[in-house]
Write a structure and sequence with these properties.
408 residues, 8-stranded mixed beta sheet, 27% helix, alpha+beta, 7-stranded mixed beta sheet
């Protein structure tokens, strides 16, 4: 099934790209000015991470909204290169929803905003039959021809021109690994990483798509600081950095995806209701409301985080950034720009509730764009940098994409 899907997508990509090339031959699209310069000229890039599980579960309701927000970012930042890292491709019901991958690819390629990119590559792990290796990761790239894009062949250890074909995850141009089961015992998981390496204007950059372990229980996360889940995430991230780039050189580029970073839950609870008012319940903890017959101020259970005023995490998000301690334990190789935006998770999946949070988890900054230290130190000198959320005012699913616009 997966190979059939890939053949269909490959044919679709070739037809669409041929149509775009023909159109550009008669009426060239506007490209980024920086992409036309020599190899020493910085060019604008846009890197985006998006957990798309909800999107694939509600294609009819969310796809156009999602693509509108994504393409608006492309139009605003006018990049010469776009890297989109996706997690949970196919959604939770991937065995039935994986067929929508073809719809997603065709619709994004048909968008006017993307027609100037004559180089397109997608690495999609749709092979859910292979349970020991299935990650549901997808890395999609768009490049203008002026960048002279090339891809690293991990098998032959050489650069090759990036052609217009779509490839699967058995490609020599990517390295993919699912985390070993002993790293997160007791739960089957699709978590892992997908690594590609690009040469753009003669300069090499690594792009590592990561999906780290989630919090299996709010109660367990509350009862230990740092949580045992945080420790497992850091162990997985160190595995990624040990394996990439894979040739003995220092990793240079971007590590971005759904890190599943969570707020330190006990200090959060202390801040919003106070630990002294908590009492045990059958499934976890509760903080009673002021009225004896009214709703509880807080209910904390393994799969439930119901707070009386969840919007405070959005409207006063800087207040809660001090509990975003998990990134402080990341390896020194990785850096992040200042986070001045609201939580990226966990939003309502209803189209008419773009700013409402779900009650399953405490809101947090799960989705991040990390940059290796040397590149991070160079970014501000090359041009303007922007780091933020996409689709702030619309429903993007339970995760809102996080993007970094910069010059490389």
């Amino acid at each position: 099934m997966a190979m059939t899907l890939m053949h269909v997508l490959d044919g679709l990509v070739r037809r669409l790209m041929a149509a775009v090339s023909s159109e550009q031959a008669t009426s060239p699209a506007q490209s980024s000015p920086a992409a036309k310069g020599d190899n020493d000229t910085p060019f604008p890039a846009l890197v985006v991470t998006a957990n798309v599980g909800s999107l694939f579960e509600q294609v009819d309701a969310l796809l156009d909204i999602w693509l509108d927000a994504f393409c608006a970012a492309v139009d605003i930042h006018n990049p010469a290169f776009v890297a989109l890292h996706m997690q949970e491709v196919g959604g939770k019901e991937y065995k039935t929803s994986m067929r929508f991958v073809e719809v997603f690819i065709s619709r994004i390629l048909e968008r006017e905003s993307m027609r100037r990119f004559t180089c397109f590559r997608a690495f999609l792990d749709t092979q859910f039959q292979l349970e020991d290796s299935f990650t549901a990761l997808g890395s999609v790239f768009f490049a203008e021809p002026g960048l002279s894009p090339q891809l690293w062949n991990f098998q032959t250890a050489c650069w090759e021109s990036a052609s217009l074909q779509l490839v699967t995850t058995d490609s020599p141009y990517q390295r993919k690994e699912k985390f070993a089961s002993h790293m997160y015992p007791g739960t089957w998981t699709r978590k892992g990483y997908l690594h590609t390496r690009w040469q753009l204007c003669g300069r090499a950059y690594n792009f590592v798509n990561v999906h780290l372990f989630h919090d299996a229980s709010n109660v367990a996360a509350f009862e230990s600081t740092p949580s045992l889940f945080s420790e497992k995430r850091m162990a997985a991230l160190k595995v990624v950095l040990d394996r990439c780039p894979g040739d003995g050189t220092e990793l240079h580029g971007f590590v971005f995806g759904d890190f599943n970073f969570r707020l330190s839950l006990k200090p959060v609870v202390q801040d919003i209701v106070g630990l002294g008012v908590l009492s045990r319940s059958d499934k976890g903890y509760r903080a009673p409301g002021k009225s004896p017959h009214g709703p509880d101020d807080l209910v904390l259970e393994p799969k439930l985080f119901r707070f009386r005023d969840p919007e405070v995490f959005l409207h006063e998000h800087q207040r809660f950034r001090r509990f975003d301690n998990e990134p402080e334990t990341k390896p020194d190789l990785l850096c992040e720009l200042p986070v001045a935006f609201g939580p990226s998770y966990a939003y309502s999946e209803e189209p008419d509730e773009p700013s409402k949070f779900l009650t399953k988890r405490c809101p947090g900054w799960c989705d991040r764009v990390m940059v290796t230290k040397k590149l991070h130190d160079e970014l501000s000198a090359k041009g303007p940098v922007w780091y933020g959320l996409l689709g702030v005012d619309v429903c993007m699913g339970d995760h809102k994409p996080v993007a970094l616009s910069c010059f490389l």
